[in-house]
Amino acid sequence: MSDYPKIKINLPAVKENAEELMKKFNGEIIGVTKGVCANPRIVEAMKSAGIKKLGDSRIKNLKWLKSKFDEELMLLRIPMKSEAEEVVRFSDVSLNSEISVLERISEEAERWGKNHSVIIMVDIGDRREGVLPGNLTDIVSETKKLSNLIIKGIGTNLGCFSGKLPTKKDMKRLIELKDQIENQIRIDLSVLSGGSTVNLKLVEENNLPKEINQLRIGEAILLGKSVTQNRNIDYLNQNTMELKTEIIELKKKHSEVLGKTGQNAFGENPNLNGEGKKERAIVGIGRQDTNPKNLEPKKNGIQILGASSDHTILDVSNFEDDLDVGDILSFSLDYSSMLRGFTSQYVNIEY
Ligand SMILES: *Cc1c(COP(=O)(O)O)cnc(C)c1O
After folding, report:
1. What pTM did the predictor assign?
2. Looking at ligand 1, which atom is closest to the CA of residue 198?
3. Of 19, 202, 283, 343, which alpha carbon lies 20 to 30 A from 6's?
4. Active site residue 169
């Protein structure tokens, strides 16, 4: 059976990225595995680089990680009330912003005879998860009353939803909030969890205050990139993985569509207006398997025209070598195309 499409992973490059980041950042790094569905070989690569804690957003991944690894596990997505039991059983620490969910987690922790650690998330500008700064003291003091919960600290997430870029001022705000809470309540918040890959810029520019002692890093380890800043991180490897696809059709075709058009399979109105006859290739991968428009061809002279669920259409008129049906074309991935690639059961993994 064909094993295309497939993602080929360069494990030493992943390991090197993790090592490099451990050198650059003095605090602790949570190795984030959600982008690769907690792929075991990638987890091993992170571990061998010295990463001691793992984070994932899905209980299913954490449950699996718990069965295979001894590392401390962090649940990154603020939990659903309905998964409180699994949170306690399959993660050691979770990020939280809702008191009613914390109450459920506390009940389950008590029921399972376990202590569960929590980090309270505060929204300092990305407008995704987190309590507003003004409500932080209240939720921390309410949480403190709950049994079997240990409040480890506070944290924030930036970049992922709105693209908000973290600043030194944002990080100082987090420190101020910690000081304020510690003054108002008798509590020791030992962890200040500052953010994700997007925060590395602050580390590089010496603008991350030393009090920020934890970062949760996925993309930089996995791809050596920061999508929010639209950059390759120059001291990391970008050759950590590539997507290999097979050409299933190769023909010279007009780019103009014949006849009237409606919406495509994804409810969009693509504007495919004419540039005349072009050499076009179709590769056997689609939007069910990756985010085709964000793929980057490894070789010059290939342009991605678009994709439907199972087909990706390329303009190869400017490709310098001969192509044939059955040839393999390789692409580098960005975060979204990697995420979907690992999630699709139709994409194979090779090391
Ligand atoms: C995904 C995620 C991260 C990791 O983000 P990267 O950009 O991949 O480094 C960190 N924290 C939270 C809460 C996340 O959801």
Report:
1. 0.95
2. 7
3. 19
4. no
